[in-house]
Structures are given as structure tokens and as C-alpha cells.
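Section 3.1: Structural characterization of target chains.
Under the original work plan, the team committed to producing a structural model for every single-chain target entering the pipeline before any wet-lab resources were allocated. The record below documents one such target. The sequence was received from the expression subgroup and is listed exactly as submitted; it comprises 148 residues.
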Amino acid sequence: MAVKIRLKRMGKIRAPFYRIVVADARTKRDGRVIEEIGKYHPTEEPSLIEVDSERALYWLGVGAQPSEQVEALLKLTGDWGKFKGDKDAVSTVKTKEAKVEFVADEKKKPVLKPKAEAPAKVEAPAEEPAAEAADAEAAEPAADAEKA
């Protein structure tokens, strides 16, 4: 049985991403696979390339033939060099830079004002209805006493 390591296309029209798979050479491009060993997203900047090196080297060792595209990806990740016996093979895949956190200038005037005064105003009206309720309760017993 001839085994190939190739790309399985996924995604939408004009938005492809691929899985690096091990499949029988006679199966369809997106057909049944033996094992998925990685991912490739060419539309991201920089392109995302993830390969399970251990499994890729295993399949290359047992005779699986990579397609041209997969061979190029394996060269980028350094797995092809390891398979061919180059002990100095290193991954040359570019990774995304970490986003820099936004820091506001301390010298500039803040746009938002502190809300220290607002809660004090809210508390004062809350006390007034309670005082009115207490006055109303005191007035009710006086009214009951007048009726009796």
C-alpha cells in the first residue's frame, strides 16, 4: 500500500486552510485519512504551520512519500532535514509577534472624571424616602388614637 503525506483542503471558497494528513495514495484529496499530523493556514500573516514532528518522522521512516507542498512545509519546520540526517536542522517558521499592551500617558489629562461625587448624591435621596416613611408610620398611630 502506497502511503502519502499530503494536504487535505478545508475551509470556505477563497478562505482555505489545510490539514497535513497521512493517506493512502488512491484515496480522494479530501477523503478518508489514516492520521492527521498537522495544520497549515496560508491566509494568516505570517502563515500558521503546525506539524507533529514525531509522527511526521515516523511516517517518513516507514516509507510515506510527501507531496511537493508538504515537503516544502517539512523543510520550513526542520523535519525534512532531521529525516535526511542533518542534525543541525532548525525550524525557520515565523511566529506572530505578541501584541503590545496599551499604556495611557500619565502626563495627559484623563478623559473620564472620577465618580466620587455621584454616589453621595444618590445616597441622600435614598434617606429622604425612609424618613418620610418613618413620619408616615408615626402619623398612623396618632390617627388611630383620634378615632378611638
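The mean pLDDT is 80.
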